[in-house]
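Weekly puzzle thread! Below is a chain. First person to post its structure in token form gets bragging rights.
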Amino acid sequence: MTSAEVLASLPPLRVEGRVDKLRKVMAERELDGFVVSGLSSLRWLTGFTGSNGAAVVTADAFTLVTDGRYATQAPDQLAEAGCSASIVLDRWLVTGAAAALGSARRVALEADVVTWSVVQRWESEVSDAVALIPTARVLTELRAMKDGAELARISKAAIITDGVLAGVEELLVPGVTEREIGQALDDGIRASGASGPGYETIVGSGPNAALPHARPTDRVMETGDLVVIDVGGLVDGYRSDMTRTFVIGGAAAASDTAIEIHSLVTKAQAAGVATVRPGIEAREVDEACRSIIRNAGHGEHFGHGTGHGVGLDIHELPSVHATDTAILQPGHVLTVEPGVYLPGVGGVRVEDLLVVTEMGCRSLTLSPKLHLSPS
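Winning reply:
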């Protein structure tokens, strides 16, 4: 499919009602103004995809401030998304946003987005009567709950990636380089109608498989190597995420160590997936995976969190780690991706992308997993 055909197959992405959700949070926090600066959150709130902009929300006004480059794009995108915001063009973003605040006096800025220099600019633009309130996670928590149109885009990205990975598996033979595999995946994702990879594709073989975020190199893969492939697609701004681990030469070529850790991670990942359901804390998923790996004596070889949310950004809420108390709810999209990494030897990670449903969860990534039985 072409990119246009992929987009045509998806339901319209509409933003009606999202500003009302933000206003509800504002009322709870006694804020009468909120400035949305993060570009992913801006897109979620308005449908605008430009590289420069801010949304100003007050109790009775909703304004998108951007510059003259987007004089045509901004109104077209807002209309298509069903966004009611008025548009102000100002080359000085903070100046235009400050003016759009009107009489607001308690104004939230996104502390996890706005730089110190921008805060100083804000302080020079507003009067002493305006209190600038640092906030964090407000928009990202709202964005964590995906609607049907968002899920359709994430699912399409996952479907495309499943198909591309299946086609590339025949290249997993001795003599092929990590870089060749990575390039084949990226090219295949684009050729299948996605905008591109959802993030920088990871291919790590042999000792490089012990690096959780290994970038593809010119290392030539050898028989018996473990190969970690972490790949996703990007469709209309939304991303997918998946990891599979292979053995060059197949199961018969796997070492005892490869069999041990691959079987262990596969078991831990399945336990994590089985734990995902509404009403539990995210850390329970982490513990379901981590306890199996820890009890097998490999706790020190699993050094990252078990998962994360995925959407407009590749890392979103909810976080899935040992201390996260977020309650999983229907509409959350998250990964479950435990791993074991043995420095100088290799590593294994297995990852699925799940959507939380009313009854449990559903996997959006369907690529088969390699199964190695312990010797």
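Puzzle host: Confirmed. Bonus trivia for everyone else. The chain has a mean pLDDT of 96.
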